[in-house]
Fold this sequence. Notes:
Number of strands: 0
Structural class: mainly alpha
Order of helices and strands: HHHHHHHHHHHHHHHHHHHHH
Shape: globular
Strand content: under 5%
Distance between the termini: 20 Å
Number of helices: 21
Largest sheet: none
Amino acid sequence: MAASIKRLGKETLIYGTSTVLARLLNFCLVPFYTYYLLPGDYGVIATTFAVIALLNVIFLFGMDQSYLRFASEHAQKTDVFQHCFYGVLLNGVVLSVLLWLFAKPFAALIGIGAPYGYIIHLAVWVLFLDVLNMIPFTKLRLERRPWYFAGVRTASIVVNVLGNIFFIAVLHKGIASILWANIFASLTSLLLLSPVICRELLAKKPSFDKTLAGGMLRFAWPFVPSGLASLFVSVIDKPILVHLVGLTQVGVYQANFKIGVFMMLLVSMFDQAWRPFFLAHAKEPDAKQTFARVLTYFTALGTWFLLGLSFLMPHIIQSNLFGDFHLISPNYWSGLHVIPCVLTGYFFYGLYVNFMVGPVMTKKTRILLWITLLGAAVSITTNLVLVPHIGILGAGWAVALSYGGMAFALFKFTQKHYTLPYQYKKLAGLAIACVLTACVAYVTGKQFPASVLIIKVLLLTVYPLWMWFVIRKA
């Protein structure tokens, strides 16, 4: 058990190195955007990429998850790869043509306006190229080749960052620059992954296996509505905010929402290694005990990250560490209060990822549709109810509540159909430690505002001792 968890940690670190570097480099663009783009322009981009995220699920059609499942069991792995890749390619071509033809009315529909139809044309290329990369990326994950995966991801994001700087600061292409940079980044990934793609596509003459294709589609399709519903939790707030508070507030919200990337880093690192890990170790006699302990360790580390980022990021953003230059332009500081809510939401999403073992191992993936529809319903309802009264803070609360609801629902399902011996006493101890630390920071900060930063740092320093005590003694 210990060796298995150690390997998961190692692979998480490798995947995480590329993910951390990628996300950090991408985050470096946030201050760049806030100084080069007005909040309204940033709102257009935020809304466009929210829609791209949703459409990406439809373009991919769950075939990455289907590949993971069938390639791990099917004797002819090349057949599985070919069916997935060609299926995604065909679907991408059809949808891209339709979106290209109706770009202007679509731009009007999502709230950015018909004059931004050219933005939709560029978004089509981003979508099509991204989806072609997904199956070879998934193959690398399944084959436990994290270094190749990390190298491609890192090269792509470096191209993206440099492209943004070149197109915005040098060529002055405005908001279109961001999409052009994404296009070149996706082309870079596709080029570096071409050996993997060509080897599988040329390994044998393509053939259509009706039984295999049908089984893969039946497994994959629930990931489409569930994926859309899941994304609604994190992106539906932008279109709603566009209509309720305008593009400028969307830009302010998005700049601060991006701070959540640091919590999402931890979750993404874990997720990249977790799913292949539990598929590979599911048949071991102590598998369930191992999976249960993983949740305890994730909760301990996740709550520390949550507290640290919530405590320190507002101070860092408003500090004068870089003279007159700040991490985010002062034009966007009115949205700092949404940061803890977004971070909490991403932590709950990490719990959701942990509980994913239940539906995947029992092959009852259709439950994901209902759980994520629940999350989407909570997100939409919370946004519509709270945003008119408390503005963008309502959107932040929507993220936290919707992910929390999804995590709880998936936990209940997993314990019913694939019962795991979770260490409830230790988990409760960690939760209590987290809440108490947050309360102490809030109360003492109100009483001693001049020393609030010192108090928070001391609490964060002591918190690992709490974690150790809970895990070892509880």
